[in-house]
Amino acid sequence: MSSSEILKGQEKHEANLKYPQRLRRLHIFPTNKAENMQPVDRFVVEEYILDVLLFFNGCRKECAFYLVSLPVSFRYEYLMAETIFSQLLLLPNPPFRPIYYTLVIIDLCKALPAAFPSVVVAAVHALFDRISNMDTECRTRLILWFSHHLSNFQFIWPWQEWANVKGLPKWAPQRVFVQEVLEREIRLSYFEKIKQSIEDAAELEGLLPPKAGPNFRYHTDESKESTEGHRISKELVSMVRGRKTTRDIILWVEEQIVPANGTKFAVDVVSQTLLDIGSKSFTHLITVLERYGQIISKLCPDEEM
Asked: Which positions fall inside the MIF4G-like type domain (predicted)?
């Protein structure tokens, strides 16, 4: 191999690292559904979209703004969705982190509420229909994207259209897709919320995982003997519900609980009780920890505690 060929190969390699790879187009929509445009127009718009995705990586709102403002005289929502999904599902890895495409799609739905959401719905249905032919890695990315996307739109989806998957074998790709999406939605919300979201497709309730609950050591149960930990936990719950300040609770713990029972015991009761109070959902947990997390920090100045 000559030195000029080596140099040319090196330049090509550096260019591939610096600039986005030419789109490996994923044909999602049938020809009669996508915009009718000349091949050169399609090529130019695709390049516009890829450039915007490249230069606004990390700035999702600016990216969405420029994507809906391309200097063309025709509509291109289907082409835009097809291009973004082609990037998201690109093997072996997408050019950017999957969360970037997720956020851009969300912002596009908000920027074009009358047009883009319906395009996304059509894309999901088209990809769902051919999911059995899809690479496992692409299926996983699609599951993660879809569950996250729905969590930003109140988990609204016409699940009744997919209710038939309950009758498919457990290994069937479409059934696995629906089941894993529902499982991840529960992680992003809570069991009752997701169960309510599929009430129009009652058959799918069988795909929901068993309802999980906190393993709370100081749960009040008449069949169990009440201990000092149960009493303290109950009093702490009463203080939290009574909107006692963090300072008041810290003083109560330091003056009454720690001297009588020790720091380790106080940490165990306080942390478990606060986690149980916030166990209803992720939002509840964040609220409790933001409001009363200083109590645990005060009791655990040493990370090894």
From this structure: 74-199, 224-303
